[in-house]
Amino acid sequence: MESSSSLQFFVALSLAMGVAYLLLVMVVILLFSWWVMPCLAHRKLKANGFSGPKPSFPLGNLNDMKKLKMTTNISSSSSSSSLIISNDIHSTHFRTLLAGKNCTVRNVGPDFRSILYRKVFVYWLGTEPFLYIAEPEFLKKMSAEIRGKSWGKPNVFKHDREPMFGQGLLMVEGEDWVRHRHVITPAFSPANLKAMGSLMVDSAKNMLDRWTGLINSGQPEIDAEREIIKDRRRNNRQDKLRSKLLKRKKSARKIKRDANHALQNQPPRRVPFGKFLNPKQNLKAKTLGKEVDELLRSIITERREKPRTGNKPEQDLLGLLLADNTVDGRKKRALTTKELVDECKTFFFGGHETTALALTWTLLLLGLHPEWQEELREEIKHVVGDGEIVDATMLVGLKKMEWVMNEVLRLYPPAPNVQRQARQDIQVDNLVIPNGTNMWIDVVSMHHDENLWGKDVNEFKPERFKDNIHGGCNHKMGFLPFGFGGRMCVGKNLTNMEYKIVLTLILSRFSFSIP
Ligand code: HEM
């Protein structure tokens, strides 16, 4: 009797000790990843001359940034239209975060003494320090020696972005990035893009037919953002041959819409237990990510199995990727089905939304500037004729449209920042960005910097791109709508073509203003 109760005691004691040990290990791990590691990273940055606003645990500078956003919202609600027309979308963010702050800077070369802490500084997203960069010369020197494959993407974002981009080109690093980029780049060659032109024209015409229908039925106002970004459904149900495909496209759009919402509204993981703050949203993001994977996998498998007509691949992106994936019957640097799924997701989330946003902002700005609508209509008449695009090569002649696109991408860059993580120590003059440093390159700030663009920086002036591909910016790296270096956007030419096709068709059929 006595020996069985002492046995029970020992079992309970060892269980309790086991649990206590596990808890202790967990606490040590958490302390290490939320406190010790970030503090070490911060100390290294400080030792190398970088500093910034004081963070608090566990939110870092998130609270300061939230307060700034609230101030922005209040001022926008009191005079919303003037805020939009001013195009000054940067004035309240980081500039205010640093207003009136002073600091002593050590180890700084003469080049960067004046900009450190104003345009290059450390701030904290939760428990993660980031080096904020809004200075093109610093960026140029920092990236001069780094090749595309040697750049990292912040580990801290990888988990959040997995459902959207998987291990697609945007996220992948090292030799894998080289392999992906080699397979993908040819799909975006001018010859292949040209073949995609008719698909784009058909798709845009379907959308515009719907707009015509809406206007003819007495609805003169169209929510352009909704139409272009969220709800581009084609209304051709009579076409029985296409109805099966359409059904699937509809479900793809629905999944995409829901997924965008769920994935972009995930709770922040940069604060301790952030991922547990909204478990429902987390689960939804995961489920939708899986749904998108399955949908794409089924499309890829079907395409792989479908015999090609006349040995020619289908002329859309996936067709081209599948074709480039096999060379002379042998698989050369082939992407696996999982990798293809991830690439399709990357195009799906990274490619569509960005181009659609650029078009939406363009409609807003052209609505505010009818004189530019007229300029572009004249150019279209001259270059394309009645607006019926029969050959995508015609689009090269639409120079003014290109100025407008660049000016829109400058004022409202759809990719407002670019993130990096150093995978080696990076020397910038006599400063060192330590290996492992997260970097946040603020594209919006550089695009709205009066020192780089002049006093009229916030005005819509497409003519600034007339004789200058950098729009007269003082520095070549001050205009970065498509990123920089080896990791520059692979879809740049596709966007250029799609933008011109859609805008040409819109301007040929409609004139518009802001209600
Ligand atoms: C207005 C339209 C677009 C904008 C503003 C834009 C912007 C960007 C930016 C800034 C980057 C660099 C990201 C970084 O360095 O971390 C990038 C990369 C990328 N973009 Fe785009 N993009 C656009 C359209 C597209 C389209 C249409 C596609 C494909 C269908 C696409 C696919 C990609 C991919 C795959 C990468 C990763 C490239 C690499 O890391 O090698 N983008 N884009």
Automatic annotation (TrEMBL):
Looking up InterPro entries in the UniProt record yields: Cyt_P450, Cyt_P450_CS, Cyt_P450_E_grp-I, Cyt_P450_sf, Cytochrome_P450_Monooxygen
Q: Which membrane topology describes this protein?
A: Single-pass membrane protein
Disordered: where is this region? 249-276
Q: Does the keyword Cytoplasm apply?
A: no
Transmembrane segments annotated in the record for this chain: 7-36
Coiled-coil parts of chain: none
Keywords, comma-separated and alphabetical: Heme, Iron, Membrane, Metal-binding, Monooxygenase, Oxidoreductase, Transmembrane, Transmembrane helix
Q: Where in the cell is it found?
A: Membrane
Q: Spell out the Pfam families in the cross-references.
A: p450
Which protein family is it in? Belongs to the cytochrome P450 family.
This chain belongs to which protein, by name? Uncharacterized protein
Look up and give the organism this protein is from: Rehmannia glutinosa (Chinese foxglove)
Q: What is the lineage of its organism?
A: Eukaryota, Viridiplantae, Streptophyta, Embryophyta, Tracheophyta
